[in-house]
């Protein structure tokens, strides 16, 4: 993804226009982000999972994506009363809060249109990556899901060491739910990924060999910039 701003530069730009509009809040792990139709948040650090609300007969909500530094959450409510998605920290997180009325005021000015582009482009990455799961054969869904998670954490991972370690909060159960695979299918393909040395276990968390992944599954890596 081309960087229009870094997250910190974005916050600084907001503060230049609205010096007192942004506050920092810290959340512990496993905390649902409050939804009051009045506040949006931009993540400073930590990991927050998003869930799509299911119908009343379902036992739980569906994990949709993982949001991290620079992502906006509870932004859709700026324009409507959409409340079909909830957000919960899966690790301690620090966020900047901004009142939606202040955000509406900020986005009202044509010269601030890059701000809206920044927000919506980051949203678009989550939607695009999730859509790729439905385009893969069952044998390749898990590989795509793991690539997605790596990219969401480190969009510039090609400039990093090709062995990327995911923090421990990315548990097998969360990866399975994100992938949408059945339990049997998930563990079958997980075993295969370990056998291929695409995945490695470490004390710090799951390690992903992105170089080997690109070699064995080149279609997993999108050709377009996003």
Describe the structure.
The protein is α+β, with helices and mostly antiparallel strands and 226 residues long. It is 37% helix and 20% strand. It is built from seven helices and ten strands. It has helices spanning 7-17, 100-107, 113-133, 138-153, 172-179, 183-195, 210-216, and strands at 22-27, 39-45, 48-52, 62-67, 72-73, 85-89, 93-99, 163-165, 199-200, 207-209. The strands form three sheets. It has a four-stranded antiparallel beta sheet. The protein has a three-stranded antiparallel beta sheet with strand order 4-3-6. The chain is elongated and about 55 Å long.
Shape: elongated
* Tally of helical runs: 7
Quaternary state of this entry equals single chain
The N- to C-terminal Cα distance equals: 5 Å
Q: What strand line-up does the widest sheet have?
A: 1-7-2-5
Structural class: alpha+beta
DSSP helix fraction: 25-40%
SSE run: HEEEEEEEHHHEHHEEH
What value does the Rg take, in angstroms? 18 Å
Strand content: 15-25%
Runs in which pLDDT lies below 50 for 5 or more consecutive residues are none
How many beta-strand segments? Answer: 10
Main sheet record: 4 strands, antiparallel
